[in-house]
Specification:
171 residues, eight-stranded mixed β-sheet, 0% helix
Length: 171
């Protein structure tokens, strides 16, 4: 049943159904193909019918994916997936957890990585990690702390601290 339907020269443009499953409401382009649909499983689908561009399901948004697995999930086949642009001399992204925040900022062409910007946690660091699945940074190859730069050590004791299994070089 379709209690409300608006039809154009090429087919249905807008319809609301009284079905309790599947597509509950749709808006179509001039050819009658749905470009916006509201489904019974709390999904909102926008974009072309064969490859939807935007999916909202529960509290997750998918762009380029029909199954978002994070609050914002962007999937693309091009190299640059997203662009954040500011109209002044600084553009940045703030990453906030329950304890502190970090930033990735571009200021006048300078890339700046900032850790614990409000000094909320003791002994903060910027860690560069390789071949690990851990977020804790235990196997970090390069660590930058207030005390210095550590290579193969998570706790540099001087401005430059290079650790090797046979020699521990401090400069």
């Amino acid at each position: 049943q379709t209690p409300l339907s608006i039809t154009g020269a090429s087919g249905s443009l807008f319809s609301v159904t009284d079905n309790f499953s599947g597509s509950l409401m749709s808006v179509s382009d001039v050819s009658g193909i749905p470009i916006l649909e509201v489904h019974d499983d709390d999904r909102v689908v926008m974009g072309s019918y064969s490859s939807p561009g935007l999916i909202v399901t529960g509290s997750k948004v998918g762009i380029g994916t029909s199954v978002p697995n994070a609050p914002l999930h962007v999937k693309s086949s091009i190299d640059y997936i997203t662009r954040f642009e500011s109209t002044d001399t600084t553009a940045g992204i703030v990453l906030q957890d329950s304890n502190a925040s970090g930033r990735v900022t571009n200021t006048n062409g300078n890339l700046i990585l900032s850790s614990d910007v409000n000094n909320e946690v003791a002994n903060s660091a910027i860690r560069f990690m390789l071949d690990t699945t851990s977020n804790a940074g235990g196997s970090a190859k390069v660590v930058i702390r207030e005390a210095g730069l550590g290579i193969n050590t998570a706790s540099p004791s001087n401005p430059l601290h290079v650790y090797h299994a046979t020699t521990d070089t401090v400069a």
